[in-house]
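ingest -> validate -> predict -> emit
validate: passed (alphabet ok, no gaps, 256 aa)
predict: started
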Amino acid sequence: MPAQIHPSAVVSPQASIASGVVVGPWCVVDAHASLDSGVVLESRVRVYGGTTVGANTRVFDGAILGADPQDLKYAGEDTTLNIGENCIIREYSTLNRGTKASGSTQLGSNVLVMAYTHIAHDCIIADECVLANKVQLGGHVSIGRGTVLGGGVYVQQFSRIGAYSFVGGTQKVERHIAPFSKALGDPLCWAGLNLHGLRRAKLEPKRQKLIRRQLRDLYRGSDTVKGFLQANKRELDPYFAEFFQNWQGGLLPKSS
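emit:
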């Protein structure tokens, strides 16, 4: 099926447009942008050069993909924004390219980005995440697979949120959040195991038990992250091993 491009759209001849792509009214697609098969740009979507949009991703009105990073150190380097397959990016969301620090901003597959969300330079969003309306991510934020951020969540730059976590709406994240955690309250605190996330991960019972035990040990058994890692070094679950790799910064505290 050939691409369908509305007469009012402006698409550079140097853009890569696959079969089955739909480019709606008043969209602009720059040179060196790439739209894989089945991508739909609804209306007034801007896709800058250096942006790759994966197959069957749908981008709603007014979204801006791959604009220059909002970083004073940026000096025009060639960087990228890479969006996976089967994503949904809702109205007026903005996703910036990376900087020379990492070279790219990355969005996995099957990610839902709701309206008015901002994803800054060098962020890494894993598969199957949900970012509700008006989520704002600072630069270099890392979000693990299957994580859900409630509406209006602000995440400070360089923060790391582990896989299958949940952060309640309107909160500000200033410290790292371990995998399979719930983060709630004002000020934000660790609020226990995200049982819904653990179920969605579809892990075997033995591994679920290990994750439960290690998350409990992290917050109730060990005084420090270093102590937790030392105590669990022989069988640390892969989700925790990935999360604590090259560890720096502080862990979200538990509620008092």
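Helices lie at 195-200, 205-221, 225-231, 238-243.
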